[in-house]
């Protein structure tokens, strides 16, 4: 399955993606309301970190796809709301709701949210450059190849950044 196949499948059956991106901010708000002042403590901090990961990775991927479509391919008239706009809105809402309950610096998994988002964007930028250099694993290969490539590049960048900053 290629990314185009995945996007076509989402366009035909949008309910799962609507449920996923609708639940992320709702869970963030509900858990934030339920935990009250215990938000910085475990297990709530781990849940909030997980929600940020689950919203930021597809959200930033959507930003990169959006920029790619604007500058190289289809232009702004052919945006798909489910794959281009909804993940970005869900990411922004989820991060905003969580940041109202707990300082994002206190959450495990990243020291600063801006560094985390920059690292994800850098990973997608590396993938974008590789795709432009005719490494066709991204848009001609399987979606699983893309996920694997993302994970490997992300781990290398995360390890390199931690080594650089310490």
Number of structural units classed as domains: 1
Helix content: over 70%
**Morphology call:** globular
Strand content: under 5%
Sheet/helix structural class = mainly alpha
Through-space gap between termini:
40 Å
Q: Determine the mean pLDDT.
A: 78
Low-confidence stretches: none
Q: What is the number of beta strands?
A: 0
Order of helices and strands: HHHHHH
- Major beta-sheet overview: none
Helix count, DSSP H or I runs of 4 or more residues = 6
Task: Please compute the radius of gyration using only Cα atoms.
Answer: 17 Å
Could you describe the 3D structure shown?
- The protein has 166 residues and is an all-alpha fold.
- It has one domain.
- Helix content is 74%, strand content 0%.
- The chain has helices at 3-12, 15-35, 44-71, 81-101, 113-132, 143-165.
- The longest helix is centred in the middle third of the chain and has 28 residues, at 44-71.
- The protein is globular, with a radius of gyration of 17 Å.
- The N and C termini lie far apart (40 Å).
- The mean pLDDT is 78.
Keywords:
166 residues, mainly alpha, globular
Describe the SSE topology.
Elements lengths: L2 H10 L2 H21 L8 H28 L9 H21 L11 H20 L10 H23 L1
Helix pairs in contact: 2-3, 2-4, 3-4, 3-5, 5-6
Short characterization:
The protein has six helices and no strands. The protein has helices at 3-12, 15-35, 44-71, 81-101, 113-132, 143-165.
């Amino acid at each position: 399955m290629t990314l185009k196949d995945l996007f076509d499948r989402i366009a035909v059956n949008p309910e799962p993606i609507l449920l996923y991106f609708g639940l992320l901010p709702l869970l963030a708000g509900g858990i934030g309301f339920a935990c009250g002042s215990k938000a910085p403590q475990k297990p709530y901090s781990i849940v909030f970190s997980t929600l940020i990961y689950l919203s930021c990775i597809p959200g930033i991927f959507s930003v990169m796809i959006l920029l790619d479509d604007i500058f190289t391919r289809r232009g702004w008239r052919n945006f798909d709301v489910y794959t281009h706009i909804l993940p970005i809105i869900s990411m922004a809402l989820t991060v905003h709701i969580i940041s109202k309950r707990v300082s994002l610096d206190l959450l495990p998994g990243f020291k600063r949210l801006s560094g985390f988002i920059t690292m994800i964007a850098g990973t997608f930028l590396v993938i974008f450059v590789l795709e432009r250099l005719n490494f066709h694993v991204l848009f001609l290969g399987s979606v699983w190849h893309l996920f694997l490539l993302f994970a490997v590049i992300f781990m290398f960048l995360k390890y390199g950044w931690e080594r650089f900053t310490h």
